[in-house]
């Protein structure tokens, strides 16, 4: 937690200190190892810590593609927004099924969010992915029963010049 930044409070630890604590020299490798361990034990707090290490180490998102895709639908953690954000940065067609799932699935802790922020974030990520997989997903969402999802899908299709 020492790597986290809070309002008016800088981190209390550096990534180098964390790496030294674990006897590691590669922050991405450490984050990946910690994430795999957290997933195996289904430990939500440790998933969060692994993703904090990943961010602090400026680790390449590509290494995390498969674990994040596997982790997203699990109902025992609360890192859905971070996962969608990370997958969105990849702009990979491999992420389309997971991002599409994120447009329809509302984790319990986000049940209050009538603005569907997770779905909107996933739709914007889909809009940034080149190719037919993302276009087809957005076209499917264009007919969704939820107005927010429909509008954002249409906006992304328009931005892509595919309306």
Can you walk me through this structure?
The chain has 163 residues and is mainly alpha-helical. The chain contains 9 helices and no strands. Helix 7 runs parallel beside helix 9 (147-159). The longest helix is centred in the first third of the chain and has 15 residues, at 27-41. The chain is elongated, with a radius of gyration of 17 Å. It starts with 14 loop residues before the first helix and ends with a helix.
Largest sheet: none
Write the element-wise H/E pattern from the N-terminal end onward.
HHHHHHHHH
Q: Quaternary state, please?
A: single chain
Would you identify the regions where 5 or more consecutive residues have pLDDT less than 50?
none
What structural category arises from helix and sheet content? mainly alpha
* Distance between the ends: 45 Å
User: Which geometry do the CA atoms define?
Assistant: elongated
Total of DSSP H or I helical runs spanning 4+ residues: 9
Let me know the number of strands: 0
SSE arrangement:
Layout: H1 15-22, H2 27-41, H3 44-56, H4 65-71, H5 80-90, H6 96-104, H7 117-127, H8 132-141, H9 147-159
What keyword list fits this structure?
163 residues, mainly alpha, single chain, 60% helix
Give a quick summary of the entry:
The chain is mainly alpha-helical and 163 residues long. It has helices spanning 15-22, 27-41, 44-56, 65-71, 80-90, 96-104, 117-127, 132-141, 147-159.
